[in-house]
Design brief:
Two copies of one chain form a homodimer. Chain A has about 210 residues and is mostly helical. Chain A contains eight helices and no strands. Chain A folds into two domains: about 55 residues, Arc Repressor Mutant, subunit A; about 160 residues, Tetracycline Repressor, domain 2 (Orthogonal Bundle). At the A-B interface, helix 6, helix 7 and helix 8 of A face helix 6, helix 7 and helix 8 of B.
Chain lengths: ~210, ~210
DNA sequence: GTCTATACCCCGATAGAC
DNA sequence: GTCTATCGGGGTATAGAC
């Protein structure tokens, strides 16, 4: 536990901030594998042990980066609210999801491609878990909108949200992990994303009344 | 640079085999994070450096484990050929995929959840890349069967295969990485897998002639 | 050929001095 | 708050014993 002094001077504040900034930069450059306390310390200009006065350890530092990543992620999804119809907002949410993953691949990897136990943020701050749930709820809400409008055939909105999440996460992670590198280029991938969103919609829209779009 | 060992005598074979077995066991117990040359060596009863007489390094050792994993994976997919109709074989392929992932989570993680660059099997043996392509071709063939039978609406079979792969990979990887642990149990996950396969089928089957099943 | 011993450089983390 | 010193754990290259 860190006890904060009653008068937080600007020097302490900026040190923490500086560590965070250098940590982020190192992480973006080198990924999780190349991310080390010693590396961060060198950039900041202090010894590695000094970092432990500001963060509880490597995991805590990564958790802070993760928090920033989730904030950015939320803003990407939020753009979908500009859509004019429930279905368009649902589709734009998917777009935003993929855009975030491609714009911030390191962050995405930290958020969704790292084993929660592997480098132990199993008991990561409750604030993060909540933020994670929150973003999922956003997707579920988009699904509910479509259900209420009668665009989607009746189904559990959480099942819909999870399915859509799985489809796009699967595609994005295959791409980011290099599994598709030898069989398609970026253009081909973008087309596959389009197709995936189309197929999700196709499987969810009701067939009896063609009031879509 | 690389020492190729095409023909090895039986004495080497058994040592090599023993290393491989202990490596596999350690990997299954501890995962990639806990997998170390020193750990393997201790189990085998030799020093760590001795392993380098049999394998080019940690990556080469992991590549061998990966090869065995792909063999097992192939047998899981192959079961789908017992299906009576093209659509059933297509669906059974998906089942086999998920079954493999759940029965052999460590292997699955090594195959599909590890960055190809992270721990450098970027230029992994061509044999492995071919095996990987081969399993994908199996899925594509199942899609072709359905297309030829008129069960699926006309579409590029490779796009279908990739989509189905992405859906199940996404679902499985969210599960294996613990992303769903707090929101559903194993039963719920199994139901979601069923749903995912249903939705894939729904989005691919032709709507004009109901000659499915 | 196969192994051991040693060594070098990486890492996370702690204890205690200033 | 930051330092030095240090521990335990890694991958792997080299030298040399058998």
């Amino acid at each position: 536990m860190t006890i904060v002094a009653p008068h937080v001077n600007s020097v302490n504040m900026s040190t923490r901030r500086q560590i965070l900034d250098e940590a982020r930069e190192l992480f973006l450059e080198s990924g999780l594998a190349g991310f080390s306390m010693r590396g961060v310390a060198e950039r900041v200009g202090v010894t590695a042990t000094a970092l432990y006065r500001h963060f509880d350890g490597k995991d805590a530092l990564l958790a802070s980066l993760l928090g920033e990543a989730f904030a950015t992620f939320g803003s990407y999804l939020g753009r979908a609210l500009a859509g004019q119809t429930p279905l368009e907002r649902f589709r734009l949410t998917g777009k935003g999801y993929v855009d975030f993953a491609l714009d911030h691949p390191r962050d995405y990897a930290l958020m969704f491609l790292t084993d929660c136990e592997d480098l132990g943020y199993e008991r990561i701050s409750e604030e993060l878990a909540q933020r994670s749930r929150g973003t999922f709820e956003f997707v579920v809400d988009r699904a509910k909108e479509c259900l209420d409008a009668g665009v989607f055939a009746p189904r559990d909105p959480r099942e819909i949200g999870l399915h859509a999440w799985a489809v796009l996460h699967g595609l994005v992670s295959l791409w980011l992990l290099g599994q598709l590198r030898q069989s398609m280029d970026r253009t081909g991938f973008d087309r596959q994303v389009e197709l995936a969103i189309d197929l999700i919609e196709l499987s969810l829209t009701r067939k009896d009344s063609p009031r879509r779009k």
